[in-house]
Design brief:
single chain, about 120 residues, alpha+beta, four-stranded antiparallel beta sheet, 3 helices, about 20% strand
């Protein structure tokens, strides 16, 4: 199993990101770009992130895992029609439903049905 390079990335909520890129004092009068300048923000916004869609999961003993072979079916904890989780860097950011995105039925996509707010956002009044 390969290691995800984003696992060690710092956890930045929207409030953290706003605070990080907000300009609270007038920048020094130089020709150097500042963190909050549009040019640097564009660079940050172009950073690729890994998006994963989780159809479900299963837990089983190693002995059962070793018995699996071609054609075996592993039942997942999600049922057909339930929303799937959309994750970025290991965190659920949205939920959606699986859709077919090409006429030849060879590709799937996810239609977003719910955007998940930052953890604990509903507890702050």
């Amino acid at each position: 199993m390969s290691r995800n390079p984003f696992d060690d990335a710092p956890d930045l909520s929207a409030a953290h990101a706003d605070a990080l890129f907000a300009s609270t004092a007038a920048p020094a009068q130089t020709n150097e770009p500042t963190i909050g300048s549009g040019r640097n923000l564009d660079s940050v916004l172009r950073i690729p992130v890994l998006i994963q869609v989780v159809l479900g999961s299963a837990t089983m003993p190693v002995a059962n895992l070793m018995k699996l072979g071609r054609g075996a079916v592993v039942p997942l904890d999600h049922r057909v029609g339930e929303p799937v989780d959309i994750m970025v860097n290991g965190r659920v950011i949205a939920r959606g439903e699986v859709v077919v995105v090409e006429e030849d039925n060879s590709r799937f996509g996810v239609s977003l049905t719910e955007i998940v707010g930052p953890a604990g956002a509903d507890t702050h009044g």
